[in-house]
From TrEMBL:
Annotated Pfam families: GASA
Keywords noted in UniProt: Signal
Secreted recorded as keyword: no
Family: Belongs to the GASA family.
Organism: Rhynchospora pubera
Signal peptide interval: 1-23
Listed name of the protein: Gibberellin-regulated family protein
PANTHER family: EXTENSIN, PROLINE-RICH PROTEIN, GIBBERELLIN-REGULATED PROTEIN 6
Length: 116
């Protein structure tokens, strides 16, 4: 009986520890992403490099941008994320990222493009 109680206590502590670590990882990832976006957009989140779209226009523009790819779901997910942050989606189906500096300069941790 005592051994069972100790085992349950150890399991509860382990679950709480894992939960705390996961929440801190999420906070760290969000903070890193926000820091990178501020760096891309300019200091303090000013609208340097942002486009003139309204966030309500993003789904339509991303559907256009991702219409020719085989990988529609990831393309739409990242395009919408980038559009909402940058308020811009480049013309065409591929390339033309120089039209949207924020969209073009937002990179992954590995240095690859974040926005399709």
């Amino acid at each position: 009986m005592v051994a069972m109680a100790k085992l349950l206590l150890v399991l509860a502590v382990a679950i709480l520890t894992i939960s705390m670590v996961e929440s801190r990882l999420k906070e760290t990832n969000n903070a890193e992403e926000q820091h990178q976006l501020e760096r891309v957009n300019g200091q303090g989140g000013q609208k340097n490099g942002k486009g003139s779209l309204q966030s309500s226009q993003c789904p339509e523009q991303c559907l256009r941008r991702c219409s020719q790819t085989r990988y529609k779901k990831p393309c739409l997910f990242f395009c919408l994320k980038c559009c909402r942050a940058c308020l811009c989606v480049p013309s065409g189906y591929y390339g033309n990222k120089e039209e949207c500096p924020c969209y073009n300069n937002w990179k992954t941790k590995r240095g690859g493009p974040r926005c399709p």
